[in-house]
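Our consortium's second objective concerns turning raw sequence data into structural hypotheses that experimental partners can test. To show how far this objective has progressed, the report includes one record in full. It was chosen at random from the queue rather than selected for favorable results. The single chain below, 434 residues long, was entered without modification.
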Amino acid sequence: MRRRDVLKRAALAGVAVPLGGVPTPAGEPRGPAVDTQETPAGHDDPLGDGAHVRQAWVARVTRVAEPVLSHLAAGTLKRSMPVEGGPDRRAVTHLEGLGRTLAGLAPWIDLPADATDEGRARGRFARMAADALRQATDPASPDALNFTEGGQPLGGAAFLAHAIVRAPGALWDALDTSTRRRVVTALAATRQITPGYNNWLLFSAMVEAALCRAGEAWDQMRVDYALRQHEAWYKGDGVYGDGPSFHWDYYNSFVIQPMLLDVLDVCGDARDAWRTLRAGVVVRARRYAGIQERLVGPDGSFPPVGRSLAYRCGAFQLLAQVALRRELPPDVPPAQARAALDAVIRRTLDAPGTFDAAGWLQIGLCGHQPALGERYISTGSLYLAVTAFLPLGMPPDDPFWIGPGLSWTSRRAWNGESVAIDSALKEEALGAGR
């Protein structure tokens, strides 16, 4: 059997697969991973068949997520996870790792388990996620996480809330009653943290949206303030300011537009004003997703501008989410979005040095680049990369996964092929949403 087939089957069967190393059963110590550009499922063609691309994505995302969820489910996360980054991050990094990992995995694990290799792996990760939430919120657990000390737990809780909203079956309905109560208590406790006057307003709104989804009392004022301010901060052509000012970075995709979409999906019918905003928010998101597709270079690279580049392929969360929502712009068919995202994922996760010897992500954009870590970046932060895999929440028979990929815009343009002219968003298309 070829090595690529061994790796593919191992990953789908729930085995931790260090790239270049020997598969080891999940939960057992791993040997050193050998740096290699070879992909875990033998997939090396972004225009390849969608079924093979999906297998490769499952292998990659389970490799990334395995250390966080397996250790937290066993109550050994704090003991086992290295904390690269500032010395003050140890109190917050573990919650960041949990929330960001689940925010990306959520739509996938919310699909039903089945008898396929992927279905069994999905069921295993759903069970680990439920066990991880139990450990994270149990005060008696060695891995009880910090939801209140300092300001950063609000961000960690917001990504966890986002995960619950994205996977209400696996991450809420499937929880036992005690864990649900503790999750509610933990999320509500973050209200004591004052958000910054920027994208952090959406952290507070996202927590309230999860409480709303859970059928708990929620604060409409926190949601309203975040929505109104971001409406005021809209700069045009599908881009919001991060606060009153515009910043060249990827925060429209890291936080702003994904959370706007999902907060409004959960809470948008509660007020007429929010219902009016929703159509415009979707139009802007589709435009920004189209811009993101054009930012993907022919080799899968993208401009290294702005802060938080250590989130790697997480910079393309919005393109992934718009694909998941089946709301891609007309000039970006699903197979084209899939190929573009695949190129970015491979470029940012397959570089030597991406993982340490035990399989944990390391700071960097393409390999290990510690200098790219701002003071708020630590090991747990890096797992925002998992959000690039949101389209796994579409079943294998969805058009996104069917047939060969299509060249993305930059690849066609720089190969001298025909491409569509890009046009700015006509603001009148936003209608009453502005």
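The partners drew two points from this record. Residues 190 and 266 are 20 Å apart (CA to CA). The chain has a mean pLDDT of 91. Both points have been shared with the crystallography group to help prioritize constructs.
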